[in-house]
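Run: sequence + zinc ion -> complex structure.
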Amino acid sequence: MGRDDCIFCRIIAGQIPCTKVYEDDAVLAFLDIGPISPGHTLVVVKPHVRHLYDGDSDVLEGLGSALGRVAGAVVEATGADGCNVLCNNGRAAGQLVDHVHFHVIPRRQDDGLFPHWPKFEYEPGQAEAIAQSIREKL
Ligand code: 5GP
Ligand code: ZN
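>> structure
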């Protein structure tokens, strides 16, 4: 199931070391090697799946229960005020490792790490048109 050319498959297989914080049948969670803040953790699904929307639903079912648990532990252990939970999908969204993973990033009030994202206003009818297109794909 693992791929030799995938760094996260190799970590899951035990071929490359990591600083592990949690493991079950569905996920492995370990500290990011290039953290944004202390305790920055990656929750990685075990099968090699590139995008969140590529896998079978059971891949994500196992992930769901672990993700909240790990995020809560990270916040508590680091004494953070909150956390961001992010999943980058595709290069345009900043995905560098093509194996589904969630970043748990501890945040402190006014840490200035990154600001809230910019926003715009929909043109009349645009929101409903986009929502309709999404509904048709579900
Ligand atoms: P992405 O941009 O794909 O969402 O994030 C990939 C993350 O994986 C980066 O934050 C990067 O620091 C982390 N990373 C890449 N290679 C390794 C590694 O070998 N070990 C660990 N612990 N983290 C890694
Ligand atoms: Zn992989």
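>> summary
The radius of gyration is 17 Å. The mean pLDDT is 95.
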